[in-house]
């Protein structure tokens, strides 16, 4: 993975998100999908999925072929603007559709794709991602390339769309997906659940969780200009008590982050607790998915709950324009853990920063956090050093300017994308009043040099 062309903070890069060398083949610059309408039928016992995806898109270039990502599932019928295309082919994780006539630049077009198969995860640099069967149900971990395991998509964080997701599964199971539940009906042995996502969402943040879940309302938040946000947990009935205890600070966490980062970006928030233990929790837009092992009162569980929640602001609403900028998700969410620690009296952010710095100082200094390369983009050092970079900014400009910058970043880039250069530029504006402050000088050593800078005092 070439790391020679990364953007220095503050310097305007060419800002071309695609093609993305971190996820070759995923994401196409030639068109944007405005809306996905997915209708899915799932048979749990046989792990069978049949789907119909309708995509409303606009061509950015003249398109002779429309390329989508679809992994492990077979497209059975494709239509472009209601007509049979000249050619459809599928190879590896690509579905290539050649319309009978090229689509002109700027033209809107509709795709309808029927597809089916036995969905399964894809294996790659980051282990298995995507559709995953649980002991009794299913989940989808979309990051970074798991989305095509359950629907055809323009698979890149820079490609945000609205969604409608309708899924029918066995009766007695609850289907949880992103956004607002807008419909539910039961017919014989099948139940159908419909969700709408009105805020633009990157495909990797779309998810489907199916299981025997009971919904609990954890509370409602109305804080700091946020519209009222309903906070739910979806839990297996046997874990109800443990979940109520383990998740009892979620509402306070939202209140704190809304105060520090700006209004909660969505209408509701649901923590899904799976009956299986999970190695790591997963973020999705308006949802977090945690394992039964993540709802203890220990700091390690609570920090992860804070971390996943913080991704609603940084990751889901403000999304990295390229995977290279992943520290904008992970560094920020890790710093949110420390802010929660400070707020809840479990150790100041400075103490957490010092702990993280000590850990890092014992590790190899061979990573560029602002351009880690595909293999290391989820390396713990991206998280911790990213958080330390923010701590360094806070130390340099003071709390007032620092939190104003975070909130400005959250609001200016709300439901959009951002790069490191965008953040540095914003810091320059907000931090300009601090004597001698230069965002670029401050962030550069943390993000674009290998040697660990000294602990910010
Ligand atoms: Zn994270």
Outline of this structure?
With 457 residues, the chain is of the alpha+beta class. The strands form six sheets. A seven-stranded mixed beta sheet has the order 4-7-2-1-11-14-13, with no helix packed on it.
Describe this structure in words.
The protein is an alpha+beta fold. The chain folds into three domains: 26-211, tricorn interacting facor f3 domain (Immunoglobulin-like); 213-310, Zincin-like; 322-448, Neutral Protease, domain 2. 25% of the residues lie in helices and 32% in strands. It contains eight helices and 22 strands. It has helices spanning 240-246, 250-261, 299-310, 327-343, 349-361, 380-412, 420-431, 439-448; strands spanning 31-43, 48-59, 66-69, 74-80, 87-91, 94-98, 108-117, 122-124, 127-134, 137-141, 161-170, 174-177, 180-187, 190-201, 208-211, 214-221, 229-235, 268-274, 282-284, 287-291, 318-320, 416-418. The strands form six sheets. The chain has a seven-stranded mixed beta sheet with strand order 4-7-2-1-11-14-13, with no helix packed on it. Strand 19 and strand 20 form a beta hairpin. The protein binds zinc ion. Zinc ion binds next to helix 4.
């Amino acid at each position: 993975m070439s790391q020679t062309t990364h953007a220095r903070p503050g310097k305007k890069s060419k800002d071309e998100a695609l093609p993305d060398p971190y996820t070759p083949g995923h994401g196409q610059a030639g068109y944007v999908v405005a809306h996905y309408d997915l209708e899915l039928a799932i048979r749990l016992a046989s792990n069978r999925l049949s789907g119909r995806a309708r995509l409303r898109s606009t061509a950015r270039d003249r398109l002779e072929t429309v390329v989508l990502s679809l992994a492990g599932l077979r497209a059975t019928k494709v239509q472009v603007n209601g007509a049979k295309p000249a050619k459809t082919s599928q190879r590896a994780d690509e579905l290539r559709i050649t319309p009978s006539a090229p689509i002109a630049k700027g033209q809107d077009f509709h795709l309808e794709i029927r597809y089916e198969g036995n969905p399964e995860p894809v294996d790659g640099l980051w282990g298995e991602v995507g559709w995953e069967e649980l002991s009794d149900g299913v989940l989808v971990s979309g990051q970074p390339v798991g989305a095509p395991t359950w629907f055809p998509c323009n698979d890149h964080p820079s490609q945000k769309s609205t969604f409608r997701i309708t899924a029918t599964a066995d009766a007695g199971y609850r289907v949880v997906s992103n956004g607002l539940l807008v419909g539910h009906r039961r017919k014989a042995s099948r139940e159908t659940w419909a969700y709408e996502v009105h805020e633009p969402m990157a495909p990797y943040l779309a998810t489907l969780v199916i299981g025997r879940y009971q919904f609990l309302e954890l509370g409602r938040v109305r804080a700091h200009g946020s519209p009222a946000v309903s906070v739910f947990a979806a839990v297996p009935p046997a874990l109800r008590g443990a979940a109520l205890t383990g998740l009892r600070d979620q509402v306070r966490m939202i209140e704190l982050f809304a105060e520090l980062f700006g209004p909660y970006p969505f209408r509701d928030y649901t923590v899904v607790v799976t009956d299986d233990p999970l190695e790591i929790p997963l973020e999705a837009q308006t949802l977090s998915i945690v394992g039964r092992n993540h709802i203890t009162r220990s700091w390690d569980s609570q920090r992860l709950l804070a971390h996943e929640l913080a991704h609603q602001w940084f990751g889901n609403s403000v999304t990295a324009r390229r995977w290279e900028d992943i520290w904008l998700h992970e560094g920020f969410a890790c710093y949110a853990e420390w802010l929660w620690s400070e707020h809840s009296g479990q150790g100041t952010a400075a103490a957490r920063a010092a702990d993280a710095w000590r850990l890092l100082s014992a590790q190899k200094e061979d990573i560029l956090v602002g351009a880690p390369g595909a293999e290391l983009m989820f390396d713990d050092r991206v998280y911790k050093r990213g958080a330390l970079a923010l701590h360094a900014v806070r130390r340099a400009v003071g709390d007032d300017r620092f939190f104003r910058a975070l909130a400005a970043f959250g609001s200016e880039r709300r439901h959009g994308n951002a790069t490191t250069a965008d953040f540095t530029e914003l810091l320059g504006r907000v931090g300009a009043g601090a004597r001698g402050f230069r965002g670029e000088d401050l962030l550069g050593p943390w993000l674009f040099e290998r040697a660990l800078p000294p602990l910010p005092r």
